[in-house]
Amino acid sequence: MQAYKKIEVIIPKLESKRLIALLQRNGIKGYSYWGGIRGSGDRGLQDGEGLSEAFVNAYFVVACSEEDFNRIKEKLRVFLSDAGGVCMISDVDWLIH
Question: Cα torsion at 56, 40, 30, 94 (round to 10°)?
Answer without folding.
Answer: -150
